[in-house]
Amino acid sequence: MTTDFTAADLRQGIIDALPPDTSSYGAPPEVRNVYLPNSHAKALQPDAMVVAGGRGAGKSFWWGALQKREHRELIGILSPNSQLNERTIIHTGFGEVPDPDHYPGRDVLKQLLGNGAEARLIWRTVVVGHLADADHPARRGSWPERVAWVTQHPEQVDRLLSERDHQLDQSATWTIILFDALDRSAADWQQMHTLIRGLLQTALDLRPYRRLRAKCFLRSDQLDESQVADFPDASKVLTSKVELSWPRSELYGLLWQYLGNATSGGEAFRRLTPGVSGGWSSISVTGRPFWRVPRELLGDQVLLRAAFHQLTGEWMGKNAKRGFPYIWIPGHLADGQESTSPRSFVAALRAAALDAASRYPDHEWPLHYESIKRGVQEASRIRVREVKEDYPWVDDLMTPLQRMVVPCGFDQIVERWTHAGTLASIEQRVAAGAERLPPQHLSNGSSGVRGDLEALGIFVRMRDDRTNIPDVFRVGYGLGRRGGVRPLRAGDHPDSGRA
């Protein structure tokens, strides 16, 4: 080790620095832990009306961060081109946390659509309610009353929006209405698509104004253009779309953001990044200083790799044949679209530190390679739990596949599904209205469901048409792969003592 701090000190620093719960649930992150990848800086600009990404990519993170003045101040410092600052006005048009005063919930949305309300006008009412005075009809009464008023008074609405836009332009201030967690807006895909189409139309309606914008955080699977973009000029909204990506260097940038600003051990972690001429710089936001990861470090894979290997050693075993931690960890956490969730990455490393503290307290490196493997197991468990929350039907499809070895022929998978009656069971629940957001292509049978699982990154179709399953899902669902990370079994847990 090239530091005066012991491996045990650094190990405990990792445990203390990384969050035990990687889901924000709409709560804003601590300023010192805000890390801004390049693609995300573009996504935060007002004119980026659609921000897309998978679960854990950062959509809700930024939805929460943008609502806090100090976070907007920080974004303005880190990315001057973002056009955001502490004076930017932010409203929430929909989110994970219910707020019936400012936007309707799922049951109210269902009622409004059922009564004939147009989705575009529902979201337009939400926008107008944020911009109007407290006694305005769009801000008081029930949601059906508000929507009815906006529907029946289009000229007054247009005048209100124009007046507010002029006032904002005079003060060079942006107002942005944020929409997130649209999966909670509906129980079936048809209603979901209707609401998202209406939301995109609302975003397009605001585009001609100088200082009014809607920003829609959407999962990639919610952006089926054949379903949500069949309206005039939809391309003007979709061309603004920015995907929240996490290349390997940005994942490690996020890690060093956490470690370099740790309350215990931050200085030690910053000293693990030698060779950076500019060094770490201190930034002050609302009077509180924190450290910024050197961009020079992020642009040099050799430096990043060397810094991380001071926490893990150079190999994922006793020699180089087992791989190198810097490459191995993101690779084993990637989904079928080769995307690694920062949430999974952080969860795996914290679990690895806890495991190493328990099993290998005297190891020469803070993280033992066997602990890293168990950390991937824990991250896979978390990822599987998230999938169950979003798409309960995925569990029905994956459970019969336990103990299979992948890659395998898709006919073997179909055989398991047929024996378990899996598709028939899902179809029955759909017919009874008891399945929330079922497989979009269930009507096409096993081939349609295969496509849905591929779209979610759970299945990967190989060149020879066999099916593979990435480790981040395979391990948690109990499937095997020759030479891969050991799958979890029923009742198994990374901290249970089993290797």
Quick overview:
With 499 residues, the protein is of the alpha/beta class. The chain contains 23 helices and nine strands. It folds into three domains: 7-16 and 246-385, no CATH class; 38-243; 391-474, no CATH class.
Would you kindly provide a written description of the structure presented here, covering whatever features stand out?
The protein is an alpha/beta fold. The radius of gyration is 24 Å and the shape is flat. Helix 16 packs parallel to helix 18 and helix 18 crosses helix 19. The protein has three domains: 150 residues, no CATH class; 206 residues; 84 residues, no CATH class. Helices cover 47% and strands 7% of the residues. The two termini are 27 Å apart. The C terminus is likely disordered.
SSE blueprint:
Elements: H1 7-17, H2 38-43, E1 50-52, H3 59-65, H4 69-78, E2 89-94, H5 106-114, H6 119-131, H7 143-152, H8 154-170, E3 175-179, H9 189-206, E4 212-218, H10 225-228, H11 234-238, E5 242-243, H12 248-260, H13 266-270, E6 281-285, E7 288-292, H14 295-298, H15 301-312, H16 325-333, H17 342-359, H18 369-390, H19 392-398, H20 410-420, H21 422-431, H22 445-455, E8 460-461, E9 467-468, H23 471-474
Parallel strand pairs: 1-4, 1-5, 2-3, 3-4
Antiparallel strand pairs: 6-7, 8-9
Helix pairs in contact: 1-17, 6-7, 6-9, 16-18, 17-18, 18-19
